Amino acid sequence: MAKLSSGKIWPYILGGSITLVFGMCVATIMVTSKADIQESNAYMSKYQEADARANEFINAQINFDKKYNIEYVTESIGVDKPQIKYKVTDKSGKLIDNAEIIIDISRPETEKFNQLLETFTVQEGIYTFEGATFPKVGVWNIIARVQVGDDYRFYNLKADTRIKEVFEF
């Protein structure tokens, strides 16, 4: 007991604490470096660019929404030859057949299944995209960049291969 009270134990406690903290830091770095962390693809760009141009994207959406309507009219998505469809009209209800649309499809947790669709057919204001694949059951992000003339907006959806309903985010 005299040995502990003589003050010679504190260097061991201090050394052990420093070693423990250092070991926990190394373990944290090793575990997080193995994690499958994906970058955001909001606005079809890296998050740094999306953050820097956020006001521009919001103002573009407001201007687009003053003149046009876009509607996701896909019946459902699934593994068997899915078609993704959008309908574009102006505010008076006139069908728009000259919009440019690009679709980015991704899973929320991985970039492994990302797809970019740029080829579509237009018939009576309905833009139909074919060739998408949904190899995994569940939720998919479908981001469309819709442009009519100089006006554009991003139309972001969460769609599920198991149910018909979709949700804008």
* SSE pattern: HHHHEEEEEEEEE
How much helicity do the residues have? 25-40%
Distance between the termini: 66 Å
Strand content: 25-35%
Shape: elongated
Mean pLDDT: 86
Count of separate DSSP helical elements:
4
Our Rg estimate from Cα atoms comes to 26 Å
Largest sheet: 5 strands, antiparallel
Uncertain spans: none
Content-based structural category: alpha+beta
Order of strands, widest sheet = 4-3-7-8-9
Number of strands: 9
Overview of this structure, please?
The structure is a single chain. 29% of the residues lie in helices and 33% in strands. It contains 4 helices and 9 strands; from the N terminus they run H-H-H-H-E-E-E-E-E-E-E-E-E. A hairpin with a 2-residue loop joins strand 5 and strand 6. Strands 4-3-7-8-9 form a 5-stranded antiparallel sheet. It has a 4-stranded antiparallel sheet with strand order 1-2-6-5. The longest helix is centred in the N-terminal third of the chain and has 25 residues, at 10-34. The protein has helices at residues 2-5, 10-34, 47-52, 54-67, and strands at residues 68-72, 83-90, 100-106, 115-117, 120-123, 126-130, 139-148, 151-160, 166-168. With 169 residues, the chain is an alpha+beta fold.
Q: Which SSEs are present, and which pair or pack?
A:
Elements: H1 2-5, H2 10-34, H3 47-52, H4 54-67, E1 68-72, E2 83-90, E3 100-106, E4 115-117, E5 120-123, E6 126-130, E7 139-148, E8 151-160, E9 166-168
